[in-house]
Amino acid sequence: MSLIEQLTALGADGLASIAAADSAAALDAARVDLLGKKGRLTGILRGLGALPADERPAVGAAANRVRTAIEDALTTRKAALDAAALDAQLAAGTLDITLPGRARPIGAQHLISRIRDEIVEVFCGIGYTVAEGPEVELDFYNFTALNHEPQHPARSASDTFYVVDRSTDAETWTGPEPSDVLMRTHTSPVQIRTMEHTKPPIYILAPGKVYRRDVPDPTHLPQFTQMEGLVVDRDVTFADLRGTLDYLCREIFGSQVRTRFRPHFFPFTEPSAEVDVSCNVCGGTGCRTCKGTGWIEILGCGMVDPNVFAAVGLDPEEWSGFAFGLGIDRIAALRYDLPDIRMLVEGDMRFLRQF
Ligand SMILES: [Zn+2]
To answer: What is the DSSP string of 111-163?
Structure first.
């Protein structure tokens, strides 16, 4: 068989084996067999050297035609195999994009968080920063440094949650006296912790949860949320306190509200006052919400007691300041006219979704 006949046979054979290849691996094997370094085409062309010079060009041209035909066939077959593989993959992983999606319900801020953030925003606008402290507190920060007498009624186990019972762990306990660890009853300990570590001037807000041994009723919860404010600077007066709280009340309840300061007693401020705002429901004429008085009590405040400055090593002759505290739950109840503050913590979505 002449070389040209061998090449023609190889071409026909090659196209047949390419057409028969049913996978990428089989196709590659056919390619190596036909065109590889040790493949059949190379084998045939090895006989080229034995031919007379004038016959070689015709054989070379035939070899090129066969090579091109085989290469074209390989390319076409590879494209066909790839397309088939993709079709199979798509068929296996069917995705129906017409199915309805799963709706993710959009939540909203809880009323307490919302009012807390609102008040924080009001005060951040006039230069205050937010301070934090632990909810499990030591007696020193919760009472002693805040000028509470040793026999102050708030220190009794009937008013305050003590965390460690004096009678247990007495043998192994190495921390503070067991009776000194309690759930903070107000956010005021943050005043002490801040003054211990920060040099005046101090302008802070301290929002957070506080705990008292109250039986839940429409106006009391054993856990509620307070917002503390503290200012320490030179020459701070009661007029500064009054102006600041007037501003706060107008920002929360609207520009029409009036405020009233009534003398009161707190161990850690002197003088102290309770602040009422004019009733938003009746406008001050008297109604069920304000119990006929036209006023609603919303916060306590006063000038920082010199004994408190002394407890944190600040000179009361040099520094002066004021503090205030308000119940966020109570403000929520007033602003949204809630008949019972327990609704705030019951987690009833029908109630919460209204706001
Ligand atoms: Zn009223």
So the answer is: HHHHHHHHHHHHHHTTT-EE----SEEEHHHHTGGGT--TT-GGGSTTTS-BS
Which residues face 209 on adjacent strands? 225
Of residues 94 and 59, which shows the higher confidence score? Answer: 59
| Alpha carbon of 71 to ligand 1 centroid (Å) | 95
What is d(CA 144, CA 88) in angstroms, rounded to the nearest whole number?
A: 78
Distance between Cα 334 and ligand 1 center (Å)? 11
pLDDT tens for each residue of 16-30: 999 999 988 999 999
Cα(257) to ligand 1 centroid in Å equals 12
Q: In whole angstroms, give the CA distance from residue 239 to residue 236.
A: 8
Give the three-class secondary structure for 88: helix
What is the Cα–Cα distance from 255 to 246, expressed in whole angstroms? 10
Q: 256 or 150, which is more confident?
A: 256
Q: Are the C-beta atoms of residues 207 and 226 closer than 8 Å to each other? A: yes
The answer to whether residues 42 and 34 touch, using CB atoms and an 8 Å cutoff, is no
Percentages helix, strand, coil for the chain, rounded to the nearest 5? 45, 20, 35
pLDDT at residue 59 in the model? 86
What mean pLDDT comes out for the span 107-133?
91
Crossing angle (nearest 10°) for helices 24-35 and 56-92: 170
CA of 296 relative to ligand 1 center, distance in Å:
8
Per DSSP, the residues of 287-351 read: -TTTTTSSEEEEEEEEEEPHHHHHHTT--TTT-EEEEEEEEHHHHHHHHTT-S-GGGGTS--HHH
Q: How far is the CA of 261 from the centre of ligand 1 (A)?
A: 17
Tell me the pLDDT tens digit for each residue of 230-243.
999 999 999 999 99
pTM, to two decimals: 0.66
CA distance 226 to 185: 10
Residue 105: burial class (beta carbons within 10 Å; 0-12, 13-18, 19+): exposed
Q: What is the DSSP letter of 187?
A: S
Question: Which pLDDT score, from 0 to 100, does residue 165 have?
Answer: 60
